């Protein structure tokens, strides 16, 4: 079968492309913006990429068009597909029907931490010899790809693994299906990491997102398991009804962290009983919470907590999660996907815990749909409180970034021009500094621009 994917360079749709190619389909795709790591991953897989949405692409005559949620009415290729009555389907529905059907799906949902937690979970199952398939909105360093089909376990060469780990996004499915993506996945094991207001472009308020999360809970079978953090918004979701097993994180009647040391190591408790000690390089309370959820979810498929804990000690994190891009003249440049104020605060705090009193220069691009709408702008100053200096790229924002950052105006700077921002960061940087770049996009290749400019 030939499938043509519209919006192929998004992390989710790019993952679908990899899975489809591995399943033996011919895969082509198009997008308006092409940048690493997804573009390089797709090219390495031999998937043909076309820039833009020219209606002439219908001449490819694929068997079906798989539509990403970046595609809207008015998109010239989509209009041609509709006008010609050509077959199309959403990415989540294609995935559910062609990959997830009959699998033991482990879905990781939450406003923050989905990618890291799903990566941890996939790695724990891999380490335990379960050879899972996965689709993750990033590239886990332990695997080097964002998606793969279930593999043949080393201890059972006659069958393919039944397990599939998926990052379960609450964003809408497609312009013609406004349900959250994750309602398509029908998990047997569901992790609910946390829940805050986000995606202001599609959700009116927090209650609307809570409703979608409960739709996910409704799909978990009686013999399944919901692993949920102890949080008011998730409490409200669970209170609406839960018909499966339920294990809570940060609860005396569930999973807890204890005895955190200065290196980030910690003990894991379940129902008050010690399960072992996690020793790893990741820092921050959020990552410890993520680890608890992973251990709980892995236990549901038969992985003993002691094995999961051992696996986490070998976890290498995800690209674009506090990823060091380079060090020039003793100035370290990091790349991180943080874009919501809570994630920004957590990321900066995590780096602060790592570098102590060294200076942190936060370089921010508020480019998510929610941030562009200005819904979260008032929370930005507090989210950046642990940074020593802030450089905000305010190009085409639609709101006054300087005014929003006024409470920290003594250390905040805004820029409409990317090159001017780069020059300002380099002028400010001193040996021993840490430049933390945060964006959910390519940010105009700012990381490499900074590294090159620092060499002068």
TrEMBL record:
**Boundaries of every Mur ligase N-terminal catalytic domain copy:** 2-98
Query: Which keywords has UniProt assigned to this entry?
Result: ATP-binding, Cell cycle, Cell division, Cell shape, Cell wall biogenesis/degradation, Ligase, Magnesium, Nucleotide-binding, Peptidoglycan synthesis
**Biochemical pathway:** Cell wall biogenesis; peptidoglycan recycling
The answer to keyword Cell wall biogenesis/degradation applying to this record is yes
Q: Which residues bind ATP?
A: 110-116
Recorded GO terms, molecular function? ATP binding; UDP-N-acetylmuramate-L-alanyl-gamma-D-glutamyl-meso-2,6-diaminoheptanedioate ligase activity
EC annotation from Swiss-Prot or TrEMBL: 6.3.2.45
Residues forming the Mur ligase C-terminal domain are: 320-441
Q: Which cofactors are required for activity? A: Mg(2+)
Q: Could you provide one GO biological process annotation from this protein's UniProt record? A: peptidoglycan biosynthetic process
Q: Which HAMAP family match?
A: Mpl (MF_02020)
Query: Any idea what job this protein has?
Result: Reutilizes the intact tripeptide L-alanyl-gamma-D-glutamyl-meso-diaminopimelate by linking it to UDP-N-acetylmuramate.
From the Swiss-Prot or TrEMBL record, give the protein name: UDP-N-acetylmuramate--L-alanyl-gamma-D-glutamyl-meso-2,6-diaminoheptandioate ligase
Q: Which organism is it from?
A: Methylophilus medardicus
User: What taxonomic lineage is listed for the species of origin?
Assistant: Bacteria, Pseudomonadati, Pseudomonadota, Betaproteobacteria, Nitrosomonadales
């Amino acid at each position: 079968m030939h499938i043509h994917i519209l919006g192929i360079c998004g992390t989710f749709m790019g993952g679908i492309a990899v899975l489809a190619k591995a399943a033996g389909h011919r895969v082509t795709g198009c997008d308006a913006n092409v940048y690493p790591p997804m573009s390089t991953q797709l090219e390495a897989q031999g998937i043909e990429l076309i820039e833009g949405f020219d209606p002439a692409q219908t001449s490819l005559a694929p068997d079906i068009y798989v539509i990403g949620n970046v595609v809207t009415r008015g998109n010239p290729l989509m209009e041609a597909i509709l006008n010609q009555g050509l077959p199309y389907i959403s990415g989540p529905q294609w995935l559910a029907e062609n990959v997830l059907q009959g699998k033991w799906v482990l879905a990781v949902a939450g406003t923050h931490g989905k990618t890291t937690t799903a990566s941890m979970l996939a790695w724990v199952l891999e380490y335990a010899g379960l050879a899972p398939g996965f689709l993750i909105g990033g590239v886990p360093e332990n695997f080097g790809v964002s998606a793969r089909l279930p593999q043949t376990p080393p201890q059972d060469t006659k069958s393919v693994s039944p397990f599939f780990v998926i990052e379960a996004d609450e964003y809408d499915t497609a312009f013609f299906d406004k349900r959250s993506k994750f309602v398509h996945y029908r998990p047997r094991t569901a992790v609910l990491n946390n829940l805050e207001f986000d995606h202001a472009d599609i959700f009116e308020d927090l209650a609307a997102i809570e409703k979608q999360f409960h739709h996910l809970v409704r799909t978990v079978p009686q013999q399944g398991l919901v692993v949920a953090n102890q949080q008011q918004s998730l409490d409200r979701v669970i209170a609406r009804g839960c018909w499966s097993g339920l294990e809570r994180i940060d609860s005396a009647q569930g999973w807890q962290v204890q005895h955190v040391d200065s290196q980030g190591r910690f003990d894991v408790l379940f129902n008050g009983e010690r399960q072992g000690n996690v020793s790893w390089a990741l820092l921050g309370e959020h990552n410890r919470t993520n680890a608890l959820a992973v251990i709980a979810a892995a236990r549901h498929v038969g992985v003993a907590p002691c094995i999961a804990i051992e696996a986490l000690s070998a976890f290498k994190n995800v690209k674009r999660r506090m990823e060091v891009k380079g060090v020039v003249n003793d100035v370290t440049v990091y790349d991180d996907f943080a874009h919501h104020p809570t994630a920004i605060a957590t990321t900066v705090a995590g780096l602060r815990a790592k570098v102590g009193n060294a200076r942190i220069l936060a370089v921010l691009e508020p480019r998510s749909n929610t941030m562009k709408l200005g819904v979260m702008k008032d929370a930005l100053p507090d989210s950046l409180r642990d940074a020593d200096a802030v450089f905000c790229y305010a190009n085409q924002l639609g709101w006054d970034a300087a005014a929003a950052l006024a409470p920290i105006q003594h250390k905040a700077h805004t820029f409409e021009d990317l090159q001017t921002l780069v020059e300002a960061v380099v002028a400010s940087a001193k040996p021993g500094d840490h430049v933390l770049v945060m964006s959910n996009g390519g940010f105009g290749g700012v990381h490499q621009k900074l590294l090159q400019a620092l060499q002068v």
